[in-house]
Amino acid sequence: MSLLPPARTRLTDIAEQAGVSTATVSRVLNGKHGVSSHTRQAVLAALDVLGYERPDRLHSRPAGLVGLVVPELSNPVFPAFAQVIETMLSDRGYTPLLCTQSPGGTTEDQYVEMLLEHGVDGIVFVSGLHADTSASTERYQRLRSRGIPLVLVNGYAEGVDAPTVSTDDAAAMEQAVRHLTSLGHRSIGLAVGPTRFVPVRRKIDAFSELLRRQGVAEPEQHIVSTLFTVEGGQSAALELIESGHTAVICGSDLMALGAVRAARSRGLQVPDDLSVVGFDDSPLIAFTDPPLTTIRQPVAAMGHAAVAALVAEIRSTPVSRAELLFQPELVVRGSTGAAPAGALVLPGPGAAAV
Fold first, then answer.
1. pLDDT tens digit string along 11-50?
2. pLDDT 10s digit of each residue in the chain, 354 long?
3. Separation between Cα atoms, residue 58 and residue 29, nearest integer Å
4. pTM for the full model?
């Protein structure tokens, strides 16, 4: 790696790479104020990409270590959360320690022990055991008793003394059902993950209530619980297709891709024969075939709120324990369309009239 010479051409290269002016590059390199954290990060990234060594003045002293515990990274929404939270922590001078889980690998509790050994100032948990209603919350209570600040993302845990940031799952279901109903669908099913998880339970409750309002006596007949995987989505969608549903709302984008695969395995076209709605708006989902209609989690806003709450906790500034719910956004693309002609199904065993 080469030291950065003061040549004007080098500033121009960095400015072009970062998409900013040479004056902005100069302000960042000289440690001047008046540059946003986003712009500063873009300039530093340009330095790294072009192979220049950062000036000593840009190496700020870390404020401390913060643990970030996320599930496996095969679901693109979790790397998205990790990237936002890590960037926000770095902007505030903290060094994030990313802990990712995988089946048969290091457990959440084992990661926590490792983080405590490193003397972390706080921990952010994304969709961890706090979201699993079958898991004890005692582990979090022990952390709080030791004075470790915590923030929980997507999974409210009753009795845990920590700020919680979540997507409004009820609003998500209402948006999805309203969209499909407007397209003429009267036979809508829900494919979700294991019911022990708080976000899944909330989706099921909201979806069921929407069906009851439309006179469906047994909404549970229109819900399939499986795994948060492509294969899980395919299995659930096959069951819903066979029972006459013309539209499927999925608990994740990966499940939605499985639903598309299920439709094609039955010789059906998406969206001509089956409409599919995902959840998350994961990176690259807009480029699937067809581009996926989905419910977008406000990952950036949620990540910012989680970091702001954690930093406040670390600095002993009181933060509300009331769950902070963020509004999702329906993103309409090519996987949803008008209900097939003659597909109207009356309420009852089979498909849900909504």
1. 888 888 889 988 888 888 877 767 776 788 788 888 888 8
2. 444 444 445 788 888 888 998 888 888 887 776 777 678 878 888 888 888 877 766 655 556 899 999 988 888 999 999 999 999 999 888 999 999 987 778 899 999 999 999 999 999 999 999 999 999 999 999 999 999 999 999 999 999 999 999 999 999 999 999 999 999 999 999 999 999 999 999 999 999 999 999 888 889 999 999 999 999 999 999 999 999 999 999 999 999 999 999 999 999 999 999 999 999 998 889 999 999 999 999 999 999 999 999 999 999 998 999 999 999 999 999 999 999 986 544 343 334 444
3. 7
4. 0.80
Round to whole Å and give the CA distance between 112 and 106. Answer: 10
What is the full DSSP assignment across 60-124? PPP-EEEEEEE--SSSTHHHHHHHHHHHHHHHTTEEEEEEE--TTS--HHHHHHHHHHTT-SEEE
Cα–Cα distance between 153 and 146 in angstroms, integer?
21
**Alpha-carbon distance 48 to 50, whole Å?**
6
- Tokens read off for 78: 């979790």
Which letter does DSSP use for residue 150 in this model? E
Concatenate the DSSP letters of all residues of 251-291 into one string.
Answer: SSHHHHHHHHHHHHHTT--TTTT-EEEEEE--TTGGGSSSP
Contact of 12 with 4, CB cutoff 8 Å: no
Whether the CB-CB separation of 202 and 151 falls below 8 Å is answered with no
Q: Which amino acid is it at 93?
A: G
b vs e for 268-290, b when ≥16 Cβ sit within 10 Å of the residue's Cβ? bebbebbbbbbbbbbeebeebee
C-alpha torsion sign, points 207, 209, 215, 216:
positive
Question: d(Cα 167, Cα 279) in Å, to the nearest integer?
Answer: 11
Q: How many CA atoms lie within 13 A of 87 on its CB side?
A: 20
Longest C-alpha distance within the chain, in Å? Answer: 75
Cα distance between residue 29 and residue 59, in whole Å: 11
